[in-house]
Amino acid sequence: MRIPTGLRDRLMEANGRLYTLSVDPGHRVYGEKLIMRGGGEWREWSVTRSNPAAYLAVGGSAFPIKRDSRLLYLGAASGTTASHFSDIVDQGTVHCLEFSARSFRDLVRICGRRGNMIPLMGDATRPESFAFAVGDVDIVYQDVAQKGQATILADNMDAFNAGRGMLAVKARSEDVTASPHDVFVEAHRTLVSRGLRVVECRTLDPHEKDHAMIVVER
Ligand SMILES: C[S@@+](CC[C@H](N)C(=O)[O-])C[C@H]1O[C@@H](n2cnc3c(N)ncnc32)[C@H](O)[C@@H]1O
């Protein structure tokens, strides 16, 4: 597992597991293990429940998030992965977009405990409808698991002037009949056609079947 340079104060590997330094000590978000190290409390970042953790576990080396990043998270669900991003960007912000009312209730509760996580209810396919609440960001992270995943990422990067993006592609959400490889190639092609450079594309097996992480920049 490769810990990105500049993040060793926020992200660590111990005994083959990944941890983030909690900005909300004493509280779990999804039942994760907590350990004490160096005077701080660290939360285990599950590689089977979180795509970016799986990406790091399979050797992903283009992790674009920094401590002071302003992040827009599309498809935050109840905040599992977003809470780890919140630990990492202790000097930045995570705007968390979700359109399911049920997930949003949990998300609001978690955001309320963390000063750098902002909940937004809205539809990722319509960035103009929530732009008033976000402003420019550095990175868009996209995990909405619906058709047109690459286009949604590119539209939001354009709308919020983001220089970098991470796309967690779920092949089955794009087309249940297509081979995952073909879906990843098509997503890659769409991103390039939108003027983005693909920095890295990795499948997340064995942690997440039929998923890939694509990291892009302008
Ligand atoms: C795979 S789950 C995300 C899991 C989450 N990223 C995590 O790792 O903790 C996909 C989420 O995207 C949300 N979603 C799907 N389409 C969306 C859209 N157009 N706008 C906003 N959220 C959407 C779903 O409600 C669901 O909660």
What characteristics describe this protein?
218 residues, alpha/beta, Rossmann fold, 6 helices, 11 strands, 27% helix, binds S-adenosylmethionine
Briefly, what is this?
The chain is α/β, with parallel strands linked by helices and 218 residues long. 27% of the residues lie in helices and 27% in strands. A 7-stranded mixed β-sheet has the order 7-6-5-8-9-11-10, with helices on both faces. Strands 1-2-4-3 form a 4-stranded antiparallel β-sheet.
The helix count comes to 6
Q: Tell me what portion of residues adopts beta-strand conformation.
A: 25-35%
Enumerate the distinct ligands: S-adenosylmethionine
What is the ordering of alpha helices and beta strands?
EEEEHEHEHEEHEHHEE
CATH topology: Rossmann fold
Reported CATH architecture = 3-Layer(aba) Sandwich
Mean pLDDT: 97
Percent helix among the residues?
25-40%
User: How many extended strands?
Assistant: 11
C-alpha geometry: globular
What's the main sheet like?
A: 7 strands, mixed
In terms of structural class, how would the helical and strand content be classed? Answer: alpha/beta
| CATH level-4 homologous superfamily | Vaccinia Virus protein VP39
Low-pLDDT segments, ≥5 res: none
The value of Rg in angstroms is 16 Å
Q: Looking across the biggest beta sheet, what order are the strands in? A: 7-6-5-8-9-11-10
Supply the CATH class: Alpha Beta
Distance between the termini: 26 Å
Number of domains: 1
Q: How does this structure look, described?
A:
The chain has 218 residues and is an alpha/beta fold. It has a single domain (47-217), classed as Vaccinia Virus protein VP39 (Rossmann fold, 3-Layer(aba) Sandwich). 27% of the residues lie in helices and 27% in strands. The chain has 6 helices and 11 strands. The chain has helices spanning 51-57, 80-88, 101-113, 149-159, 171-174, 180-193; strands spanning 11-14, 17-21, 34-37, 40-44, 70-74, 93-98, 117-121, 139-142, 164-170, 197-203, 211-217. The strands form 2 sheets. It has a 7-stranded mixed β-sheet with strand order 7-6-5-8-9-11-10, with helices on both faces. A 4-stranded antiparallel β-sheet has the order 1-2-4-3. A hairpin with a 7-residue loop joins strand 10 (197-203) and strand 11. Helix 4 (149-159) packs parallel to helix 6 (180-193). The two termini are 26 Å apart. The structure holds S-adenosylmethionine. Residues 50, 75-77, 80-81, 97-100, 103, 123-125, 143-146 line the site of S-adenosylmethionine.
